[in-house]
Amino acid sequence: MNPNLAIKIAVPLVGLSVALVALAVGWFFISAWWSQPPAILGFSEGPEQPVAFPHTVHVQQAGLDCQFCHRTVSTDEAATVPAVEQCLFCHDFGKIDGTLSSDPDAAAEIQKVRDAFYGSESRAAGAIDWARVHRLPDHVQFVHQPHIAAGVSCSTCHGDVASMEVVKQVRNLKMRDCVDCHRDLNAPTDCTTCHY
Amino acid sequence: MALTRRQFLKWAGATGVGAVVFNGCSVPDEEIRVQSPLELPEDLVTGRDNYYATVSPADGEGLLVRVMEGRAKKVEGNPDYPVNAGKHGVRTEGLLQALYHPDRVKQPLTRIAPKVGPFRRMGWPEGLDALKATLEAAEPGSALIVTPPLRGAVAGVVRSFANAYGARVAAFEPLDQAPLRRAIADVFGQQALPDFDISRANYILSFGADFLGTWVAPTRFMRGYGEFRQGRRERGRLVQVETRMSPTAAVADEWVYVNPGTEGHLAMAMAYVIIEEGVPSGGTDRAYTGGGGLGQIADYRPGAVAGAVGLPAERIVELARAFADPSHAPALAIGGGSAGAYSNGAANLRAIYALNHLVGAANRPGGVVYNPAPEGEQVKALSLREWKEELARMRSGETKVALIKDANLLYGLPAELDAAGALRNVETVVSFSAFVDETAAAADTILPGHTPLEEWGSDAPNPGPGYRTVGYQQPVVRRFRDTMAFGDVLLQVGAQLGLEGLPGATMREVVRAEARASHETGRGSVRAPTFEEFWKRALERGGWWDTSVVARSTGPVRQVARSVAAPAFSGDARRYPFHLVPFEANALGAGQLAHVPWLQSMPDPMTTVAWSSWVELNPQTAKRMDLAQQDVVLVEAANGRFIRVPVYLNPATPPDVAAVPFGQGHTQFTSFAAGRGANPFDILAPSEERDTGALAWAGTRVRVTKTNRRAKLPSLEGPDPAVQLDDQPIIYIQRPNGGNGAAH
Amino acid sequence: MVTTPDLDRDLNKRPPARSWGMVVDLDRCTGCQACVIACNAENYIPINEESHYHEGRVMSWIRVERYWEGEFPNVKARFIPLMCQHCENAPCEPVCPVYATYHNNEGLNVQVYNRCVGTRYCANNCPYHARSFNYWEPVWPEDLRHQLNPDVTVRSRGVMEKCTMCVQRIRRATRGRDNVPDGEFAPACVQACPTQTLTFGDLNDHSSRVYELSHDERNYTVLKSLGTAPNVTYLKKVED
Asked: Are B429 and B442 a contacting pair, CB within 8 Å?
């Protein structure tokens, strides 16, 4: 083979692949910046939780409403994650202990919740340190109450949590996302609505 | 196994650039508000705040603390609590920073070898065992428990432990209020400090007491002061007699400077004038004359004391007439602070408080309102005289074990007494402080205590609001460090030692037992059918108070102010021409709060200086001595001790006064306090008030010498004391008689 | 597609507004600094270290100034608490090149931290010296961070900040409610002030205490000649 020809083919090939890689990285970075990182390489996945809490079981099978646990969503800033004790209202005294579940880990996960409340050899009684899924920058003060009062449903921002085994963020929740919606719905757009 | 984002980032991080690129993709993980892990309570509702009611035993203020996710966020006044009614002072907010202070003692510490070497960490079981062993080995009577003055549940615990074990209890307060307590007991026959009904008084004459800044219960007094000025139709009038212009003197309608130590003479002379011109409410002149006629106090005719006091006789007459003027009723006389801190302090205060009898202000609305005798134990401060004896016992080796909780002897006793040397002769010194202050640094073992927001307790505020009041202190957050409440340590170790008569097994139990007694009265602000309900509601409310329990009336007025001796000063007036007027710092107190960064950074109201010490000198005097602003001077007492401080040219300082704030000059006590400013206790002569033996902290004379150094004062106003521009003032003045306009 | 911000539409969409204001009674103030520390805790103002004082870079949303007049024995010291005056006609607003400070429909002079680029023009133009600039990253000793208020935004280095009249408390108290009783809530400084020097409320509510005091005969405006029309006014000190 003519070495010149090899170079003629190789240079554009290498150049092309470098450009492609750069393009891919660039696309990744820009889309991440602009909205959310694409769902590859483990990005945009929900974080691992200290207790594998399945929303699927609680919402789809048990038929619980969001507000059954996230009690202050219609009155407060935060929807709130309930106190451990509230889990035990259903999961204590052998009432629902996970042994009937098809998931072999269910009983072990529920035991973790009991341990959190009563304490165990490996840990003192105390709150479960849930990993945060939806996190806004520190300079944003998001308040749930007016959104619920205006009739915005939970799934508008949080997606179909009912079908998520592990909760993850589905909407990018960047400022443009918020403001577009506020404009469309004639909601306040004064800066101090969110920034203070 | 699925690739998680975290793993991917780790790999990407290995390539360097990856970390930078991908970290930009999401909300940063490291934000200032994101908090480090903490032991969280199991009833935590993430994202929700709660308010817990508690009290600050040091200030007697009822508080609401906002707690979110197991962390205390803000201290607010408890609007229900009768003492402070929803307000709080500058010091109270510091509880938050004390709680989360980075230099807290994080676990029990002990010396690697007796009396020497650095501390090593140990666990609580080891610490408690060691304490028990020490106490078992010590001979009866050789142990000493040192605390600040205590009230409420912890006072009962300390007393019963000390009684059962056979230890002495010695409370330490740097600026001892003994002369005030003595005068109140003598003049009004009251054991508890009375409340001053400032909001309803029409005319207030205050001697030496900076009651709107630092004295006794400033938050409560300020609450009344607002009403006194503008909360009603008639604006009250305030006259402040003081040797330094404190914030109280600054806002007074008249500030009267008298020669230090002659406050009592002025009060006597005023009494003379009032009695001579006819006492409005008959018979009360007995407080001065004992019924023996004016001749009894003839030595105090205005003309006779005018020279000593440093006021013209006419001015004294004028002050007396204004005070007794029926159109000024109800009038109120208050004394304290420096007026009680001379060799003749108690006599001064007696002469001052007895003025209330002359105008019928004793136990009247708008006057001195008596408080019921406090229920439960109290641990009152020992006087300087008694402390000298305690130090002698330490030095002789008679005291073998000292358990010291928060009382900083090595900082607050005059350095001349060499408390450090005395403490070195005590075999075992155990400190229970949450911070390593000077005294804790000299201890053999530190078993760190909780800060007030973490512990159980109760408080009987002194002064109370005029009726029985109990405040309940509850932990608003879980303990932040591996600490244990002092009361709990005593109860636990006491039980292990088999002591009898301890009031409970834990502080919580002791407080509950106290609350049970309140519940059983069936009266008061919280009433409930069951005790559990009472307990819950009393904790929510922050306390329990019963307006039906008021002070007993006392007998007829006795002769309490017949004479006042001339003040004795340490140091000869010619060689030591300045009166040293030390004063409690607005935020730092007498040094107990110097470790709190917020309080360190709070500008002093009068000088706007923060983080520092200074000496206030009269500008004319300074000029004569060739001293300029921020020149460093030596302030030297007759005992040869001196401090180095920069000069603040204070236009309100009298020519022969050198005023220095307490609070700074720590050698230990966290990185925020150590090595900052100067400590006036270092130079104070350990002279005593005659009647009570209390430290006469205003009775030292000093000389001021220039050094060739200058120091920059960290102040809000910049290097020069701020004055307003004549043509563009920002503070406008209204003058009732016509002169309405800008200040000039 | 990028939508162009329709600034006029956003700013003109004003619901029937409240006008938050404050009145400071100088005859009550004793200079005790309780307001300052309450503000520090609520809004986590960085700790003003000693060097910050030396450099004149002390951060404080509210401060108590003290002015001397005369010399001993005829001497006076007077106190005045000063904070952002929330001017209707604010000198800081027109000079900001990025609209980071503006007046909202509730009478508040607003500082939008995430818009601020740190030119400091506003601070230079403020006659009340009410604005503080973050010259440093806000660094807190690790443990002290537990205290920081989650309702308030972190201000990073290079950003201007100032009194917000505790807008986080306003938002919380007025959320979903048209009628908030006068005095039901207050900014941290007002809440703490033991002498009740500070009064806060809605100036458009003619039954409010703050409205009454703003029409008191002692009421005046600091530096009135500048025509800033502040929402914070003062009551003259009374002396004879």
From this structure: yes
